[in-house]
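ok so I'm stuck.
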Amino acid sequence: MESKAIDPAGIRETQHRNWDSAAAGWKAWSEFNGRADHHISERLVELAGVRPGGRVLDVAAGSGEPALTAARRAGPEGRVVATDISAEMLAFGRERAAAAGLGNVEFVESDASSLDFPQGSFDAAVSRWGIIFEPDAEAAAGRIRGFLEPGGRMAIASWGEPDQVPFLSIPMRTTMERLGVSPPPAGTPGPLSRPTPAALAGLLEGGGFADVTVEQGEVTFEFDSPEHFTTYVRAIAAPIRAMIEQHAGADEEEAWNAITRAAADAGGGSGPLSFTNVVLLASGTG
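replied:
not stuck anymore, here's the structure
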């Protein structure tokens, strides 16, 4: 059977809508997320070679990371441009920048494939769980390489294999099985679409980056209970929430309850649970 081709424009429109709707959840859980994953932002900024006075592009920055981390590293003489498809996520990013006293960050609404800057505009580029959502990610990486000074670096992050990322795979697998949702067509971008070192390195290599290397990290989320976990997923996991809203009908609450039960099974009961998740970080030179 011939595989169904993906629709890049349709995917971007869906992502725009989903991430706008999730912005309030990201705001509510911002401190929780920051405690768990800020070290990934720090490492991406290091891998991209961001220095004081540097000019940095953050692609699909969401609510502002690693743009804000890069802005601190670049300092007042530096400049960071944070881009994202979601105006609502960027609005929260602006709030965070203002609260942190970071006046060297500009926020621009754009999908990765539509970015347009003069050649040599930046010294470095970063993307934390962002460019992996772009349907034409290799082409976007190539465009971004053109915005960099010769020798400029880009560093990106993705999640690992589904079984290595329980905070996403548990609710995603539970929802798909319960609601009879088929896997997306091959090549569909998403949080688990670049789960191997080869797949993530290929994104940068496909954009013309050289000397690409991949390393592995971890992010651990700790929850008070399975119910706490489900509340978190419901607030921030836009693709999962959209799947349930589209397919569950009148059984939405039961679909979320099924996720709670699956989390309890995975965590060993009704008490606190901890999920450690594999992160891949790739970097290369333009």
